[in-house]
Amino acid sequence: MRPQKGGPAVELPRVEFKVLGPLAAHADGRALPLGGPKQRTLLAMLLVNAGTPVSVDRLSDAVWGVAPPASAQANVRSYVAVLRRVLNPASGEDRLSLGHGGYRLQLRNGELDLHRFDELAARGRAALAGGEHRAAAQALQEALALWHGAPYEGVVHHDALHIEAARIEEARLAALEDYAEARLALGEPRELTGLLRTEVARYPLRESLWARLMVAQYRWHGPGDALKSYARARAVLRDELGLEPGSELRRLHRAVLARDPALGAPPDPAPPVHAGVVWQFRSQLPADETDFVGRDRVLARARGLLDPSPGAPFRTGSPCAVPVVVLTGLPGVGKTTLATRLAHRMRDAFPDGRLFLHLDGARGPHRDAGAILADLLLSLGVSGSSIPEATEDRAAMFRSLLSGRKVLVLLDDARDEAQIRPLLPGTPGSAALVTSRARLTGLTGAELVDIDPFDDAEAQDLLQRIVGPRRLAAEPAETERILASCAGLPLALRVTAARLASRPHWRIGRLADRLADEQTLLAELTVGDLAVRTSVAASYHGLAPDAARAFRAVGMLPSPEFPGWALAALLGAPDPDDATDVLLDANLLQVEGIDVQGQPRFRMHDLLHVYAAERALAEEPEAGRQAAVARVLDGWLSRVRAAGHQLIRGGTGDQLPQVEGDLVGWLEGERTNLVTAAQFASESGYCTHAAALASAMEDVCHVRNWWDEWEHVARAALACAEAVGDTVAAAVAQGSLARVSGVRGRVDDAMTRYATAIAQLDELGEAHHAARLRIHRSIAVADRGMADLAHDDAASAAAVMSRLGDEHGRVIALRSLAFALVCQGRGAEAVDTLAPALETAERLGHPLALADILQLLAWAELSAGRTDRAAGHLDRALVLFRKVRHRPGEAYALMTLGRAHAEHGPGPAAAARALGPLRAAAAVFTELGERRGTAFTDYWLGRAHTALGDLGAAADHLNRALTGFRSLRMPYWAGLAQRELGGPPARA
Q1: If I label 626, which of 87, 117, 699, 919 is the partner at 20 to 30 A Cα–Cα?
Q2: pLDDT 10s digits, 486-509
Q3: What string of DSSP letters covers 758-777?
Q4: Are 511 and 496 in contact (CB under 8 A)?
Q5: At what angle do helices 190-202 and 207-221 cross, to 10 degrees?
Q6: What is the spatial distance between Cα 684 and Cα 693, in angstroms, rounded to a whole number?
Q7: What is the C-alpha R_g of the chain?
Q8: Which tens digits make up the pLDDT trace of 357-404?
Q9: pTM to 2 decimals?
Q10: Mode of pairing for the β-strands spanning 431-436 and 324-328
Q11: What is the rounded distance in angstroms from the CA atom of residue 22 to the CA atom of residue 148?
């Protein structure tokens, strides 16, 4: 309780933590997203030490073991930050806090299932000691029912968690043995034999389990089974340990042989009462689908979870509990079809009956459990006058009818947990199979099985079974288009297949064309009473207003996969977690993963995304849609600007938000989304955003070598600018395309675009944009026989940048000017020109510019014969290039280092030292497709091999260099390569 200012105390939200099985946390009936493996390990460590501060070092050891990465402490803080957002509710409770000594997770009474288990086990043990066997059995059974797997299942264990998991498992075994003692004292050995067989199979060296199994078997079936168990126990102990059984087990063996009266069993309990109904076998299942395909793994897992027999696969919880399996998934994914197939396959496991109840959870009016139970009892032969009035009494009668029998209850299309709890069997032997669009995470003890859309092979198989393989094989490309439109959703595939089967005169391509238009896609996915739109609409209309708005908002995004912040931006809300959780629980949204910053990424199925877009267009005002999309594009823009600023300029200068964590990892993870956002902005008329995104991404694409993405984004910006008549934005985009053409070796295209863009910008008075393009053109043409043009461009740009006060721009312009001077054979002047650029780059702390200057300075020093100075510059450049992960820059520095080794002295020793860095550079250039760098590296490798006397290898490299230089229009270097080969100089 927390006192409310000026009022009474307020009960804070409760969180239920589960560690007796897969690690989980629930609040208000919903599962909390706990993140990836490392984040879950961290939470497990906090739960082990609940209420006690845990240092960052201990958390780091738990997550990474003995070899944590250098970023471990920062990563721990990031993981904790995410967990705090998940666990600390909006009311302000600081459940996970940082204090003296480390992070502390605060739990209240009853919030951790392990604590509840310990309390119930202690209560049962005390009752057992006091001779209260029924109370002991009940408490211990409740304790064991809390288990759903191995302790901290799915969490990566290091030493601390290993020890804790072993301790908890030992406590479970002790409680199980006490439970067996209580049930044996009550004269109930029958229920124990299966349970104890399972446990001795898992722990064959635990003699106390064998002893209780032998007593239960003796009292239920006599000495035969008990003696067989003793023989098995003895064989295991001798084989594994080389020991005979202990004194307790040997005494028990002698007592069984002697039929000691002390082992005699009390009389069997009276059979259960079944409400006066003579039970008859019933199978109420719908017909199985004849064209059922795939799902083998899901069927095997669900069957193992439902199997009531001892030692069944996948069963990890207490055998005292009734198996409950929930098949959950998005609308149309085939949950009912799968459940029906599974129930038909399990007829041998449930010989007393298989019941089917369709609960209309998504479509129909809400049916309460009492009404459903009345219909169910009538179907089982209970007369109407015998059906109790109260729902709980009806549920008790239903459980009584199933007691002692093996019956499978299939509850189809459940709305929520409250609807189905009274419909569950109550005694072992029976089981419940539930289908629901909701995840039903509040159903204690239930095993959740997610049903995913079909993979490509399953989808193809279903189409072939209904349409026919020959017809599909005749039009393979069109078939692939249909499969892509259906996106693996079984309902969509069935509708499509049915339409084709009923129209044998249609070509496959005709329907593929009709499905290609998103505006009419859902209308096309309808046949008879099957319709994808109807199925999805049922889930959508069941949403609360906030969740429905969030669903529509996702439809405004260009891609069904998106980062969590994008939904917050769309809704204009800082924390849309409640609405997001509703969509997750309804299977209308899935968690795709956690990004490198520890933030969630979500995905909506493609067809749901189409429906969400429909609803957004129909229900959201246009102004609201435009503002929401603009907020998302602003979010992308601010993030990519910040990432580029940190990566290229070291995060200094303009006041931009920092992108935390692994910067390059974040950029790589968002690579596709950034391009999609820019293209979407262009196609949707957000031209200002399209131009800004293209501009922000240009240097990022250059650093990361994203040439395809660079070109896509620049073309999108150009198309939008030309469509709205924005001549400045069009010229800037044209210049960006010129730059990417230059780095890809398309010299003519680059020169044409540069000339057009620079002329337009000069005419428009855009001096800064024009100067920036002159810098890039200077770099592109300096070593291609146009050093004079490069010199004039760079000198002009440097003057403009100085006049405008752009220090970073002036640094890049001076670097371009120095490169032009080197290409003119004026190396000493180049060194002098780079001196002020080096000083400014050092002062600004811009790592990429500094690395570029150091690499070029080394090249100029080599031209002047100062090899030692060059090596020092290159060492620094390599560190900086690797820091920003600019692989082309790193490769050029390695290539220059190879040249430095080769020119350090005559003879084979220097040439041999050159081979290492030159080969490393060549590997990077080849991987990146960097033709210019490859040609340079081949040239220097050719010279090194010549010095080593390996003339064959030298000729190979030099011929490749010559071919490369010629294709890139680099006559000076082509001439050098030709000269090394011993031929006449190449023509320009």
Answers
A1: 699
A2: 888 888 888 788 778 877 888 888
A3: HHHHHHHT-HHHHHHHHHHH
A4: yes
A5: 150
A6: 14
A7: 36
A8: 888 765 555 667 888 888 888 888 787 777 887 888 888 888 888 887
A9: 0.59
A10: parallel
A11: 7
